[in-house]
Specification:
The chain has 170 residues and is of the alpha/beta class. The protein contains 8 helices and 5 strands. The protein is 51% helix and 13% strand. A 5-stranded parallel beta sheet has the order 2-3-1-4-5. Helix 3 packs across helix 4 (58-72). The protein is globular. The longest helix has 15 residues, at 58-72. Bound molecules: shikimate-3-phosphate. Residues 15, 19, 38, 49, 83-85, 123-125 line the site of shikimate-3-phosphate.
């Protein structure tokens, strides 16, 4: 276990919950680097997330995601936006716990998440309404393991980032 709590904030939550936008805002306010795990993966592979899923499949994406996570947690301090599925893979959960830091779940209703994701075509796991809802329910139990839960319902990234800052975690 690390001797001190690393200055790392991981944002977890479903697709469309605001991890990337809130993360960038929060990092700016803290003066910390912001790392978007999906962007890191895309840069490393030279492919979009959609193309990785289409060309190599989800199991390969999860391997690459795990490798990218292993690298990014070495940066400190940092705000890290995980992908919607990162925190629900047990080895990733264990890695985050072992590394330490704070996990914040950006919670939002399924209705608003659907509205936010509709029309955006770069999410391979947003196929249809039924599978979106099913995945949402499957994942809630994992997101609930986060240290903090913050609602992003009807709120802009600045408001959410301010609420996270008020937690005074460090
Ligand atoms: C995924 C969510 C995406 C991306 C990939 C898989 C998921 O990230 O990592 O498409 O499993 O829910 P966002 O949550 O940033 O959309």
């Amino acid at each position: 276990m690390p001797q001190h709590r690393p200055r790392l904030i991981y944002l977890v939550g479903f697709m469309g919950s605001g991890k990337s936008t809130v993360g960038a805002t929060l990092a700016r306010a803290l003066g910390w680097p912001f790392i978007d795990l999906d962007t890191t993966i895309e840069a490393g592979q030279g492919l979009t997330i959609r193309d990785i899923f289409e060309q190599a499949g989800e199991p390969f994406f999860r391997e690459v995601e795990r490798a990218a996570l292993t690298e990014v947690v070495k940066t400190e301090p940092a705000v890290i936006a995980l992908g919607g599925g990162t925190f629900v893979q047990e080895p990733n959960l264990e890695l985050v716990r072992a590394r330490g830091g704070i996990t914040v779940w950006l919670d939002c209703s399924i209705e608003e998440l659907r509205r936010r994701c509709e029309g955006i075509t770069n999410r391979p796991l947003f196929r249809d309404a039924a599978s979106f809802v099913q995945l949402f329910h499957q994942r809630q139990a994992y997101y609930e393991l986060a240290d903090y839960r913050i609602s992003t319902e009807g709120r802009n990234p600045e408001e959410v980032a301010e609420e996270i800052l008020r937690l005074q975690m460090f």
